[in-house]
């Protein structure tokens, strides 16, 4: 199994997960043209995508999903709540039922319910016959269910969205600051570190810290928050908005 990102942040998100001939795209917050360009950077084309999985209806995750699906005939999987809130025709997609696992090609996909200010948001675990990859962004709090679900991953893409002080003194209006920092918003650096403290870090081959705010965070702040927790992890990476990150292989 391997994974990569087309971009990670409030201007657009998309993650690739690949195992054998199966290539899944998690979210697509970019235009078709931009998506094709970013896929090419990872030596992939839309025709190679087996399916698109959607986490929730916010534009930086959903905007490009249906246009890409329609043009290239790619199956889409999302929850009924996401479809309705995102005004997606339920007849044109595959609906995820609760946390029922899906088998798509060579991967088992496990949806995980998370607290976020969307209609029926989920994040995902991907399992092959050897490995487990966790994708976990866009949640406002670390719940016991989330910890238990993501405890035993071989690789993890984890949100470190904002630094509390930078958010408080930053340019966002107060209403948006309250939303981002709420229990239904996004994980701050301290919450990210809290989750890391509760998982099997010695098992992690790759930790990617992503969805890092361009205005309310800095990689140096993230590094400071997790510095005492990453010594056991083989590789630590930071996803960016413009380039995401390149292919990371699980062995």
What would you say this structure looks like, in words?
This protein has 251 residues and is of the alpha/beta class. The chain is 26% helix and 27% strand. The protein has helices spanning 32-41, 59-62, 65-72, 80-85, 144-150, 164-169, 174-181, 189-197, 219-226, and strands at 2-7, 14-19, 22-26, 51-53, 76-79, 94-96, 102-104, 107-113, 122-127, 132-136, 155-159, 206-210, 235-238, 245-249. It is globular and about 45 Å long. The model has no long low-confidence stretch (mean pLDDT 98).
What structural category do the secondary elements indicate? alpha/beta
SSE order, one letter for each helix or strand:
EEEHEHHEHEEEEEHEHHHEHEE
Question: How much strand content do the residues show?
Answer: 25-35%
Helix content: 25-40%
Q: Would you count the extended β strands for me?
A: 14
Query: Looking across the biggest beta sheet, what order are the strands in?
Result: 6-5-4-3-2-1-14
Task: Calculate the terminal CA-CA distance, rounded to whole Å.
Answer: 8 Å
Stretches where pLDDT falls below 50 for ≥5 residues? none
Shape category: globular
Let me know the largest β-sheet: 7 strands, mixed
Q: What's the helix count? A: 9
Query: What average pLDDT do the residues reach?
Result: 98
Radius of gyration: 17 Å
What topology emerges from the helices and strands here?
Blueprint: E1 2-7, E2 14-19, E3 22-26, H1 32-41, E4 51-53, H2 59-62, H3 65-72, E5 76-79, H4 80-85, E6 94-96, E7 102-104, E8 107-113, E9 122-127, E10 132-136, H5 144-150, E11 155-159, H6 164-169, H7 174-181, H8 189-197, E12 206-210, H9 219-226, E13 235-238, E14 245-249
Parallel strand pairs: 3-4, 4-5, 5-6, 10-11, 11-12, 12-13
Antiparallel strand pairs: 1-2, 1-14, 2-3, 7-8, 8-9, 9-10
């Amino acid at each position: 199994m391997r994974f990569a990102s087309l971009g990670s942040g409030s201007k657009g998100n998309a993650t690739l997960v690949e195992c054998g001939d199966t290539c899944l795209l998690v979210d697509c917050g970019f235009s078709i043209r931009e998506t094709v360009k970013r896929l090419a950077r990872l030596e992939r084309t839309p025709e190679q995508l087996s399916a698109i999985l959607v986490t929730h209806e916010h534009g930086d995750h959903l905007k490009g999903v249906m246009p890409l699906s329609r043009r290239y005939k790619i199956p889409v999987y999302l929850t009924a709540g996401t479809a309705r809130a995102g005004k997606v025709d339920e007849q044109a997609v595959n609906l995820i039922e609760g946390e029922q696992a899906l088998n798509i090609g060579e991967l088992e996909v496990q949806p995980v319910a998370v607290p976020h200010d969307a209609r029926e948001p989920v994040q995902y675990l991907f399992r092959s016959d050897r490995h487990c990859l966790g994708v976990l962004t866009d949640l406002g709090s670390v719940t016991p269910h989330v910890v238990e679900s993501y405890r035993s991953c071989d690789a993890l893409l984890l949100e470190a969205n904002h630094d509390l002080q930078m958010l408080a003194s930053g340019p966002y209006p107060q209403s948006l600051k309250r939303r981002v920092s709420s229990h239904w918003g996004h994980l701050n650096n301290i919450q990210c570190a809290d989750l890391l403290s509760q998982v099997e870090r010695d098992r992690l081959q790759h930790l990617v810290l992503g969805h890092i705010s361009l205005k309310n965070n800095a990689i140096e702040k993230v590094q400071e928050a997790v510095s005492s927790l990453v010594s056991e992890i083989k590789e630590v990476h930071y996803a960016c908005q413009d380039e995401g990150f390149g292919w990371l292989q699980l062995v």
